[in-house]
Design goal:
10 helices; two-stranded parallel ribbon; 58% helix; mainly alpha
Length: 210
């Protein structure tokens, strides 16, 4: 499965034999990132692959996993995917939905902090403080990190809302609204998952006969 795939991932996929053959490989890679008791990794694909990473990290030792999710405006993210990776606007937006929905679902039982990318650039000190409070942890050297964050890092280009399915556009806007309001009601996000799954199933079913 490629990173841009919209195919659903099976439940407990990370326990299957195919995934197990990569446990040691991932463990070795992660071990190189360990610097003392507090360390971190960053990758967009963690939205979908977190259960596997969590499984491997538990095998590595007594580490407590915390999640920081930095969300970008979906219309900006989609524009970026179109320009960098040649995805269509609908593919880019649906992929954004899938990644965010699975990130929310995969971190429900873990300490987590959700922040917006624009907020991080506008007031990084306040956002770092929020992260520390959300996760009940101390971020070391965050003042150094704060000095590297500049407003001119925001080179956002918005995707025009044209020629996009009304159902998809509505789902994107509803998810983004919840992220902005920090609304993580389980029933609401399960509904997002259902709406996304329905779109994916329709696309896959049509694709079978093309």
């Amino acid at each position: 499965m490629k990173w841009k795939s919209i195919n659903p991932i099976p439940i407990n996929w990370y326990l299957h034999q195919t995934a197990n053959q990569y446990v040691n490989t991932l463990g070795d890679l992660l071990s190189k990132q360990v610097y003392g008791s507090t360390w971190g990794i960053k990758h967009p694909h963690l939205c979908r692959l977190l259960p596997f990473y969590e499984h491997v990290i538990k095998e590595m030792g007594d580490f407590k996993i915390h999640n920081i999710h930095i969300s970008r405006n979906p219309w900006v993210s989609a524009r970026s995917q179109m320009e960098k990776n040649g995805l269509s606007q609908s593919h880019s937006l649906l992929l954004w939905c899938i990644y965010v929905i699975e990130a929310e679902r995969n971190t429900r039982t873990l300490p987590r902090s959700w922040v917006l990318y624009d907020d991080l650039l506008d007031n990084s000190v306040e956002i770092f403080d929020k992260i520390q409070k959300d996760l009940s942890i101390k971020l070391y050297n965050f003042q150094v990190a704060n000095e590297t964050i500049k407003l001119d890092m925001n080179k956002s280009k918005f995707l025009p809302k044209v020629n996009i399915s009304e159902n998809l556009s509505s789902l994107v806007d509803d998810i983004w609204s919840c992220l902005r309001r920090h609304n993580f009601n389980v029933e609401t996000w399960d509904e997002f998952g259902y709406r996304s799954d329905q779109m994916v199933q329709l696309i896959l079913d049509v694709g079978k006969t093309l």
